[in-house]
């Protein structure tokens, strides 16, 4: 890919054709990623080390932690951010290869429809991630986790495990749910803005 294509691709990703799309990029790229990268590491960085069960043995702790966290929240949310970016990145890559200017996207029906489709895909992916987050993490992190250790062939079947910083993790969970809802609202608002521009209610940039 030539430097001109790369420049057009980056410009499209950073400066979408709608005002709300640009705000979405700012929110998604700065606030959400900063929150996950900085605060997420502070809250979840040493969780596995501080996760302890009764009896406090490495074998039991590791087994129960893997049961408690099939996937770590940081990895899940990082995957969510990357996957949600794919539809928009694919559209802007297409626009760069076809030498489509940003101001032309809302002028031609095919380009507009393709762009709206990419926004719809973002909404669907966010909704799926929202549902998966509920299934994996719920809305609250309890201080005690009851672990089934029967597979370890121990004399006991249930082990009590202490979850470190459970209240902070609950707050973080709620924040990530909130970010997902905000992103979906921005995507819906962007489609509404595009519709208004196509109908002539708003001036095209």
Automatic annotation (TrEMBL):
This is Gap junction epsilon-1 protein. A connexon is composed of a hexamer of connexins. Keywords: Cell membrane, Disulfide bond, Membrane, Transmembrane, Transmembrane helix, Transport. The chain crosses the membrane at residues 25-44, 75-97, 109-132, 171-192. The keyword Transmembrane helix applies. Belongs to the connexin family. Beta-type (group I) subfamily. GO terms for biological process: cell-cell signaling. GO terms for cellular component: connexin complex. It comes from Bucorvus abyssinicus. It is found in: Cell membrane.
